[in-house]
Specification:
Blueprint (H helix, E strand, L loop, with lengths): L1 H29 L3 H6 L5 H11 L5 H13 L13 H31 L5 H17 L2 H15 L15 H35 L2 H8 L4 H13 L1 H24 L5 H11 L2 H29 L8
């Protein structure tokens, strides 16, 4: 297990360095200089050049990248250009909400895809329903689905809040009421994709020799499904779910904007609108590292279930 972790880290670290360098180079080179953003469009070239020199913005790209990434890993992401708040504190305030939303969405999508598509009773009905839901979930954009859910459950039925967010300290019930619609909006696409992946693996495993042998012994279809087919069909889904959880941290941008939730999504949108470089870079780094860490967790989980992976390189 430790050899597997070491091998994964040896591959992950160079990739993280490359991706964060590309992020830094793209944001700081193609969106204008930080000094020009801070001083405004009416600033003179002399003033921009003076601020660049005083703050080190005119240093070579590699030197600026090293200063940024070394400060970031020590917990110092700089200060926001628009609010003058420490970026690390802004990330710490926004990240828990986005992580909670992503975990809820991935849990509902994963559990729903496995349990529903493993059902053996009324298989034809289940197949038709899940296929229809999968098509809708994949094809309908998140923002449109979110607006539909707001209209149905908040405006028409008046069961749930339209937008906003309530912390846990305000009450568990109120907090969950604000999380239901955003979580369902994010869940739709991933439930659909998980269902298609798992259904394909399930059907392939269902025709295996050991499944036919279990049926010949007279085992019930429910026991065969949940004790024999499910453990062998779920492995690819675990890897996919791990990758999706990291992607959901970045993919929550639209959902959080639609529901006016103060998470990483809205933080990134505000930073892009104001060209707030430190915030953009910090959010980008969190997304990159989050995707890689979730990939590592998925690999380790996969190896615990399938020991053959531990010896793979």
């Amino acid at each position: 297990m430790f050899a597997l972790i070491g091998w994964r880290l040896a591959v992950m670290i160079p990739n993280a360095v490359l991706l964060t360098f590309l992020l830094f180079a793209t944001v700081t080179s193609f969106l204008g200089t930080p000094a020009a953003i801070m001083l405004g469009e009416e600033a003179s070239p002399e003033a921009v050049a003076e601020l660049n020199a005083s703050m080190g913005f005119d240093a070579p790209l590699l030197e600026r990248y090293w200063n940024w990434v070394s400060s970031a890993f020590s917990g110092d992401f700089g200060r926001s250009y628009s609010t003058q708040q420490p970026v690390g504190r802004m990330i710490a305030d926004a990240l828990p909400l986005t992580l909670e939303l992503a975990v809820w969405a991935i849990f509902i999508a994963f559990a729903g895809a496995v349990l529903i598509n493993s059902a053996t009773i009324l298989r034809s009905v289940v197949d038709r329903v899940t296929t229809a839901v999968s098509i809708v979930g994949i094809t309908v954009p998140n923002f449109f689905l979110g607006l539909i859910l707001i209209y149905v459950f908040s405006i028409y039925l008046r069961l749930l809040p339209t937008t906003g967010w309530s912390p846990w300290s305000a009450g568990v019930g109120l907090h969950l009421q604000h999380m239901i619609l955003p979580a369902l909006t994010l869940t739709a696409f991933y439930f659909s994709s998980f269902s298609l992946v798992y259904k394909g693996e399930y059907q392939a495993t269902e025709g295996s020799l050991f499944v036919r042998a279990a049926r010949s012994k007279g085992l019930s279809e429910a026991r065969i499904s949940y004790r024999h087919i499910l453990p062998n069909s779920i492995l690819p889904l675990i890897t996919y779910a791990g990758l999706s959880l990291g992607q959901l941290v970045g993919g929550a941008v639209v959902t959080e904007t639609v529901f006016s939730m103060p998470g990483m999504g809205r933080l990134l949108v505000n930073a892009i609108n104001t060209r707030d470089f430190p915030v953009m870079l910090a959010v980008g780094m969190v997304i990159i590292v989050g995707v890689m860490l979730m990939n590592l967790v998925a690999d380790l989980t996969y190896s615990l279930i399938n020991p053959l992976v531990r010896t793979a390189r």
